[in-house]
Amino acid sequence: MMQQAINVNGLHVSYYGKEVLKNVSFSFKTGNLIGILGPNGAGKSTLMKAVLGLIPYDGGQITIGDCSLNKVRKQIAYVPQRSNIDWDFPIIVKDTVLLGTYPKLGLFHRPKKADKEWAMECLEQVGMAEFAQSQIGELSGGQQQRVFLARALAQNADYFFLDEPFVGIDVGSEEIIINKLRELQDRKKTIFVVHHDLSKVENYFDELILINKELYGAGPVQQVFQMENMEKAYGMPLAIAGGGM
Q1: Would you say 154 and 118 are in contact if contact means Cβ atoms under 8 Å apart?
Q2: Whole-prediction pTM value?
Q3: How far apart are CA 191 and CA 34, in angstroms?
Q4: Does any domain span residue 92?
Q5: Domain that holds residue 56
Q6: In this protein, which residues make up the domain named ABC transporter (predicted)?
């Protein structure tokens, strides 16, 4: 029997007194690749950050792996939006990925040779080993995104949360990233992805969360990715190719 990956029950989030998420509830089992969809300003990133404990929430319950967040925090890898990262920070690619090993090293422990070799292996997995000595700010958007995925891989996590990983990147990088996410899913990892390109939903995900401040659907793609649900969530007629649309 597969373990529950995540349970969110009655989640409410507000900023400065304005409600951003209202009574959002969903549950998924482990081993799913889950897309989080909704129009701009729908609260997709807010949902992810609330689940990860990065922002406070007003009400509701969240469990990951049948545990509280604090008990599984080291098993979670998070890749934020590229726009939220300081690309001028003076750090080379190899050291960026090595940071992914720190959560499990503990305080006052330095990475060992094996950790450094593992970081390089993670870079190889995303085709970025040859850039190991490059400054992170010198890379293209797609290369930067692959490096941050490598950092997440270095954590050896069970749960992966990626916020808009395909925005502003090249086709080749996008293909490498989605293939790596599918490999993680095959290894029974659970992946949540904030996503915006509706034309690729059916190819990329097997489960969806559809929100616009409140929940409009959560479950299998074939069930959620229907014209009626999408138009309600987006508040306008949509014309998107796909079996469900």
Answers
A1: yes
A2: 0.91
A3: 6
A4: yes
A5: 4-234
A6: 6-237
